[in-house]
Amino acid sequence: MSSTLLTGIGELTTHDNERPIRSDAAMVIEGGRVAWVGDSSAAPAADRTVDLGGAAALPGFVDSHTHLVFAGDRAGEFAARMQGASYEAGGIRATVALTRSATEQELLANLQRLAAEALRQGTTTLEVKSGYGLDVAAEERSVRLAASVTDEVTFLGAHVVPAGVDRDEYLALVTGPMLDACAPHARWIDVFCEKGAFTRDESERVLRAGLAKGLGVRLHAAQLGPSDAISLAVELDAASVDHASFLSDLDVEILAGSRTVATLLPGVEFSSRLPWTDARRLIDAGVTVALASDCNPGSSFTTSMPMVVAWAVREMHMTPAEAVWAATAGGARALRRDDVGHLAPGARANIAVLDAPSATHLAYRPGVPLVSHVWQDGVERVTPARTRKTPGS
Q1: Alpha-carbon span 209 to 216, nearest angstrom
Q2: How high is the mean pLDDT of the chain?
Q3: What is the pLDDT of residue 89?
Q4: pLDDT tens figures, 105-127
Q5: How far apart are CA 157 and CA 168, in angstroms?
Q6: pLDDT, tens digit, for every residue of 362-373?
Q7: Residue 157: which H helix or E strand, with range?
Q8: CB 217, CB 154: distance < 8 Å
């Protein structure tokens, strides 16, 4: 079993309780895991050494909310919103039609392209939802394809009721044959509990059916307005309630007293011109906060977790350190994982290296492609681009 020493790390974010950030640090990778962390001067020998020359390193991003199995885009819808149109959940049905008509090969190619795009920007753990099939065959195809790129697959048959389908009949389908077909490929079940989608009672019915199949619970709620579903999420011990943009004081109190994570999705606020969620309010109240991309073709078509960090710092009142924690360790908590999102010995060697001296540069230099190296499970998956020589140089 070979080992790799990463040395010359100018700033190492580990999220270790005793020393969450180290300067002039080093780390040993062995067997896909972090084997040692400490000062560069005390680094042990290894089979291979990589000198990072003072660059910052941090845990690979944990993007705990994406919708990557789809076809087409909704750029026209985005342009309309930028001219004043409001966001509505019904736009999902446009993507459903395109996704159903796409071939499996087309869907897989787009999924793999987006997963690779995320990896290049430092995302080493992805959650992927279904939700653009909305019939048994198309939903089963979606979760099966998602399982080819991640272990964190979520069945979201309860995204919206498809056009022309009776509501009660669709709920019976989601909680019966569709769930039976999709559960073998999924770890989680989710519902879009929102005006224009599903009510609290309908959401509870779907989520309890998923629990009975052994799936963990996640929930979309409070994106478009106040929700009565936050207490439901906590009652069902949901790993995460996502969006959480319109929370009452009681909602915040309930979340703070639970282990349910509030996963904030700033790409949605950016793309939909909805009010920015006040993360400061949640953090100060003791709520565990995660950040995720919500990559989808309708309301947040981005795979860039660095951009998500920048938006959270600028618009959601998070400090850079809080935003980095939420995009790494927070995402891990939203997936109930203790092997990712940190870089203590024993953790998976999922590492993002920046072409910058500190992780603060993720917000300080928004939109700049700072990620230079990525290790995933100890394998170097992204390496620095070769410098191009101009003619005559």
Answers
A1: 11
A2: 96
A3: 59
A4: 999 999 999 999 999 999 999 99
A5: 14
A6: 999 999 999 999
A7: strand 152-158
A8: no
Give the pairing of strands 56-59 and 351-354: antiparallel
> What count of other Cβ atoms lies within 10 Å of the Cβ of residue 49?
15
Report yes or no: 350 and 29 within 8 Å, Cβ to Cβ: no
Which two tokens mark 151?
Answer: 């272990």
User: Which of the four pLDDT bands, split at 50, 70 and 90, describes residue 387?
Assistant: very low
The predicted pLDDT at position 393 comes to 35
Return the pLDDT at 391: 38
Tokens of 366: 């928004």
Could you give the angle at which helices 92-101 and 136-146 cross, rounded to 10 degrees?
80
CA 156 to chain centroid, in Å, comes to 15
Which residues neighbour 280 within 8 Å (Cβ) at sequence distance 6 or greater? Answer: 316, 317, 318
Q: Which residues have CB under 8 Å from 173's CB, separation 6+?
A: 135, 136, 157
pLDDT on residue 323: 98
Residue keyed to tokens 């959601």: 316
Query: CA-CA distance, 191 to 195, in Å (whole number)?
Result: 12
d(CA 184, CA 188): 11
CB-based contact 246:226 (threshold 8 Å): yes
Is residue 239 within 8 Å of 335, Cβ to Cβ?
A: yes
Rounded Cα–Cα distance for residues 209 and 205 (Å):
6
d(CA 228, CA 230): 6
Tokens of 73: 């885009």
CB under 8 Å to 209, separation ≥6 — which residues? 174, 175, 176, 179, 189
Domains contained in the chain, CATH given:
3-60+342-382 (2.30.40.10), 61-334 (3.20.20.140)
DSSP-assigned beta bridge partners for residue 296: 300
Residue 111 CA to residue 100 CA, distance in Å, equals 15
DSSP conformational letter for 390: P
Q: Is the separation of the CB atoms in 125 and 133 below 8 Å?
A: no
Encoded tokens for 364: 């300080």
Chain segment 239-252, per-residue pLDDT in tens? 999 999 999 999 99
| Strand blocks (E) in 64-187 | 123-129, 152-158
